[in-house]
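fwd from M.: "can u put these together and see what the complex looks like"

so here's what she sent:
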Amino acid sequence: MFTDHYELTMLQAALHSGSAHRRSVFEAFARRLPDGRRYGVVAGTGRLLEGIAEFRFGTRELDFLAARKVVNDETLAWLADFAFSGNIYGYAEGELYFPNSPILSVESTFAEACMLETYLLSVLNHDSAIASAASRMITAAGSRPCIEMGSRRTQEESAVAASRAAVIAGFHSTSNLECGLRYGVLTQGTAAHSFTLLHDSEEEAFRAQLESMGAGTTLLVDTYDVEAAVRKAVALAGPALGGVRLDSGDLLAQAHDVRALLDSLGNVNTRITVTSDLDEFAIAALAAAPVDSYGVGTSLVTGAGAPTASMVYKLVSRAGNDGDFVSVAKAAKNKASVGGKKFALRRLNERGLATAELVGIGELPENDGNDRPLIHEFMHDGVLAPGWTGAEGVRRAAERHAASMAELPGAARRLQRGEPVIPTEYIQPSTVRN
Amino acid sequence: MFTDHYELTMLQAALHSGSAHRRSVFEAFARRLPDGRRYGVVAGTGRLLEGIAEFRFGTRELDFLAARKVVNDETLAWLADFAFSGNIYGYAEGELYFPNSPILSVESTFAEACMLETYLLSVLNHDSAIASAASRMITAAGSRPCIEMGSRRTQEESAVAASRAAVIAGFHSTSNLECGLRYGVLTQGTAAHSFTLLHDSEEEAFRAQLESMGAGTTLLVDTYDVEAAVRKAVALAGPALGGVRLDSGDLLAQAHDVRALLDSLGNVNTRITVTSDLDEFAIAALAAAPVDSYGVGTSLVTGAGAPTASMVYKLVSRAGNDGDFVSVAKAAKNKASVGGKKFALRRLNERGLATAELVGIGELPENDGNDRPLIHEFMHDGVLAPGWTGAEGVRRAAERHAASMAELPGAARRLQRGEPVIPTEYIQPSTVRN
């Protein structure tokens, strides 16, 4: 029952007026990107579709609503029978978005679309915020792998979703086991400072870890003195030592020192992982340091300053008494056009680089080859299309993200604040052919 | 399995070395408050205790860990039998905290305490961040009720936790139905713009809502023209109209205009609710406006600029081979004292106002009357103490929060950035008596 109280009172009043059964189109979109960001990353779609397919009001929920008198008996009866039976279409998970991109649309009765509002926005707003932050970190990290390890700095279920979103945006792996279990992503981790402190000496701790996990493990070397720890680690593990981890101090200087020390001891293949409160800027600042991988936590799971994507879910058109669709909008922003399904295209130039986000109402115009259609159908009459959910959905979303990033002009990869890297243009179907 | 990969690899290595069974004390605390905040609010404790009491590794989890070879057979066998059997004590939920307040301590074997780390920090870091933000909003709102309505701007399970944390910090109610169901808190809501747009006219929408929910409902009056909507609402509902809601525009000016209009139409008892992207500063700015209640969303659920409380969970002492506890700490910060249970007191002056947070190691010194002990035992040998969880826990936490706030000096209620409003002082037991 991830639903706001008012969704149900609206349902009750709409059932009363009869308008609950009007066919409607709701659209989720962001009016703007977070301050200074050049693009956003759609995430959460697969997770959302899994949830919508199972969205029901059970006995426990209905009893609560009845006891609290949240809604009347007619509404309770409707809720008891509810299962989403409409259509859902929109941007593929992992795809980039820009202001007013029609990211997800729900076509159903008003009543059904209304039930999904809160849940749909929760998922998309959270997961897209994390993926959008993660994507910038991946850009900053270049070819070096990033490991998501922020679970402890966000709510426990958010942690699973954040980890999933990070992997879609290009993270190599996560510390979150539940995410590994649910979505098949790679999990990683070795030991914390407490493990060293538990033992009577650092040497004992290292020995226990090496004996139990093999020389390929990564040893945490900054509990006491880094140089002494690296020497101990190499003495115990030999040249096969997998890696060392630095979690505090001046990472730039330490990475150089530790690399030189490891090399001087013959451990040229021992990797260096750094993990101390990194964000996209700290990662970029370490580009010239001999670091092999980054562990990222707090900044990632809190959206690097933008913890929510600020998407909204608006009724954009609905049937009138005659069954014909009419566009609707708050106040004077109404646009004089027939509502219904929107189309969206990414305009690509002759070099395959994106130059604009084209959005229009009505049917998709015939494609001239350079414009990439962005809208996919995820659910039809309540039935899920294959390939968007579960582990396969995550894997495909990560591929989609990498491919869409490759289309963006280079300015998108600058970390500095700026405008959306391509403009969103509204077009009439007839103007698309060029 | 809200657990980081490395908790399990540490467990494996510690089982191997035998140190996994050493008695240990881990402590959760925040080294600092979010930038500029004067105090923090402990939240999540009840929810956490419910989760720890049920924390198990089931077949699905164990199969995954085995298939991925995350840990060896000895460790899998240990996990299959795991149920937390130690002690947990700390600050009451709703209590205020300051830098280094010993918010929650776990006393058990290393292995058991290690299993709880990620989950414990997820819950406390998220919920305390939300409660800390919510408390400032409540201060800004004075005697006017605040309604939590941010579910759509955060992950769906975070939304339930955020709503719960907001109520602990003084919010009157929430839009989140699941929170109402789980924790017995009051839920509220009426209708959105989409409800008005669904109907052929605003008048039809108002009529439907009034017929279905009665004149005491709150009508949303800013879909088209506010003045016209208020006149329609009063014409349809009469003087019994419960309230009107404003969700856009210049709320300060509109609140004055709408109040004057309602009064001129005889609706002196119709309330005004405002709900447009409010934060603690916007609420404060409306203090002189004729507003009856505030609906708060995005800013609340994202922690008003501080989405995580940055608490850490550190091994502070553990038994050696002889069974005696020794204090441990990373690098040179080790303190020369015998570890174990910490005590904490809030020092109150003769007027009952807090002047310091006193923290010490060892047994609680005898109290002289003015110092309020802060540590409670929540779980003993794995058994929950009564009163901290469920709806009762939330109710008591809200009372605790209000009582603790009343003890703070006035400077705590200023929204401006500043230092923690009372200092944290480390004391030896012998120096406490004064």
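replying to her w this: Chain A touches chain B through 101 residues (CB under 8 Å).
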